[in-house]
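F.,

This is the one I mentioned.
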């Protein structure tokens, strides 16, 4: 772990319980901080931190905040083998811009081939996500104490109900930019001349795998014409 912040603060949520940090205390503390302050403070309160990025349309905002804060944190990317080439190109662009160390998480080769042969994205998208996203990521996630994710509460009805910290399957999830509005994020991107995802100007506001992503506002282009709204990582 490489982090700009190393010294522990006087507050330590782990002192409440060595096995289960007090999320209520954490949320009360972090809600008062700015997103950049939250990113710095998490390294005072925890040691074992996982950062992921989809390199989607809002990814540049959170990655820029880490860069601005001077945090050198490896970034985990789930390479399902189904991404748009534009996403992969964008990933490389941001990697160079922010001098990132990106770690690709890949699915089991046999299972991935099975999903392609059976075109699971068409007939069973939940199974496709399970094979190519959830299972490979959970193997990494379960090795860490805190998972930093760039969810924002304006993106969907599920996400608007979240708090900055929550616990899922024994891992603490941390959303430092959760309460940043879409307008605030866009303003930061524009003011700092940050590159945008090349598909965003074409009408793609949320971008996942190419077979399951259409143009649409917010997340309406994801798994369109199905009841599915999330891949399952955040549920």
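My design for it:
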């Amino acid at each position: 772990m490489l982090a700009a912040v190393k010294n522990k603060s006087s507050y330590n949520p782990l002192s409440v319980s060595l096995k289960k940090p007090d999320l209520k205390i954490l949320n009360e503390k972090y809600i008062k901080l700015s997103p950049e302050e939250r990113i710095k403070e998490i390294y005072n309160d925890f040691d074992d931190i996982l950062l992921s990025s989809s390199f989607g349309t809002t990814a540049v905002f959170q990655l820029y905040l880490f860069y601005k804060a001077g945090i050198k944190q490896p970034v985990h990317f789930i390479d399902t083998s189904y991404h748009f080439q534009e996403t992969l190109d964008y990933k490389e662009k941001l990697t160079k811009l922010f001098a990132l160390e990106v770690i690709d998480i890949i699915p089991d080769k046999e299972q991935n081939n099975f999903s392609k042969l059976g075109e699971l994205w068409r007939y069973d998208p939940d199974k496709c996500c399970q094979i190519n996203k959830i299972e490979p990521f959970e193997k990494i996630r379960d090795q860490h104490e805190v998972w930093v994710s760039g969810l924002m509460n304006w993106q969907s009805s599920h996400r608007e109900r979240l708090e900055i910290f929550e616990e899922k399957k024994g891992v603490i999830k941390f959303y430092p930019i959760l309460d940043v509005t879409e307008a605030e994020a866009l303003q930061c991107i524009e003011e700092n001349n940050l590159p945008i995802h090349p598909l965003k100007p074409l009408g793609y506001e949320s971008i996942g795998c190419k077979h399951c992503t259409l143009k649409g506002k917010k997340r309406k282009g994801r798994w369109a014409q199905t009841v599915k709204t999330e891949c399952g990582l955040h549920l």
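Residues 38-198 form a domain with the Rossmann fold fold (CATH 3.40.50.620).

Talk soon.
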